[in-house]
Specification:
With 238 residues, this protein is mostly helical. The chain has 9 helices and no strands. The protein is flat and about 65 Å long. Bound molecules: protoporphyrin IX containing FE (HEM). Protoporphyrin IX containing FE binds next to helix 3 and helix 8.
Length: 238
């Protein structure tokens, strides 16, 4: 009979769970109660650290999705993109935890951050790079196949091409929604006119909310409105 008490994996940790998940290393990554200047550092660090992990997955899935596009492997690409988008949704929900961070308590936490800022998040930077990689791969694919995205929408058929562009739009939208929530956290915790630990005024981050990775896919919406039955509601025609 199997002895489930016996640990069978190599590695550090008292049991197989600790050895595979590397929980000793993971749980040692937060400042200890002796080190912290404020008890909410734990909340602050855990939201940031877990975000980095989810971003790692989001980037990995997006990169894999991008690699499928040149071969026309569009359905797997769309599925991977959806998973990447869901990871971004998950980190957006993480920001909810910061509702419990009081603006006055954060003033104490800020004193020990140096010039450290989420603007230097390695996960966020990789996400940007990977997002642009997907935009390039799609542009090359669309060009080589003579793809007319507006026609995909008019045809209303659930083709792999349509599923991919919808997954791309969702991904782009999720990034923007993260930025909305992050901006709201900032204004709530720091105030609109304040300056971040990297010298950026909080209000300037509002402009980034409109940033688009796949602008052509958004422009198609305008094109559909302009050429639809209510086309005279389009600015260019007024
Ligand atoms: C109390 C919570 C937070 C505050 C007060 C805050 C503050 C700021 C500020 C002021 C900036 C502008 C750059 C600067 O001068 O520092 C910024 C940018 C940024 N922060 Fe945060 N942040 C918070 C939470 C988070 C979390 C949980 C993450 C997740 C990793 C994060 C990621 C980022 C990113 C990626 C940027 C670049 C902005 C962009 O590209 O849209 N922040 N943050």
């Amino acid at each position: 009979m199997r002895n489930y008490e016996k640990q069978i994996l190599d590695g550090e940790g008292k049991d197989d769970y600790a050895r595979y998940m590397r929980t000793d290393a993971l749980l040692a990554l937060q400042r200890t109660p002796e080190e912290v200047v404020h008890r909410d550092e734990l909340l602050f660090q855990i939201v940031h650290q877990s975000t980095e992990l989810w971003l790692k997955l989001a980037v990995s899935d997006l990169t894999e999705a991008t690699a499928r596009v040149p071969d026309g492997d569009l359905l797997p690409a769309a599925e991977l993109l959806q998973r990447s988008a869901l990871a971004i949704h998950v980190i957006t929900e993480h920001l909810e935890m910061l509702r419990h961070l009081s603006p006055w308590d954060f003033q104490t936490i800020r004193t020990i951050l140096g010039h450290g800022s989420g603007a230097d998040s390695p996960g966020w930077r990789s996400l940007h790079k990977a997002g642009h990689g997907m935009a390039r791969a799609f542009a090359v694919f669309a060009e080589s196949r003579g793809l007319d995205v507006a026609e995909l929408y008019r045809a209303r058929r659930a083709t792999p091409e349509l599923q991919l562009v919808e997954a791309m739009i969702e991904w782009d939208e999720r990034v923007s929604i993260w930025r909305v929530r992050h901006y709201k956290v900032l204004t709530r915790v720091l105030g609109n006119q304040s300056i971040g630990t990297q010298g950026t005024q909080v209000d300037t981050l509002a402009k980034l909310i409109e940033y688009k990775f796949f602008p052509q896919l958004w422009e198609v919406r305008t094109e559909l409105t302009a050429t639809g039955p209510m086309g005279d509601y389009h600015l260019a025609d007024s």
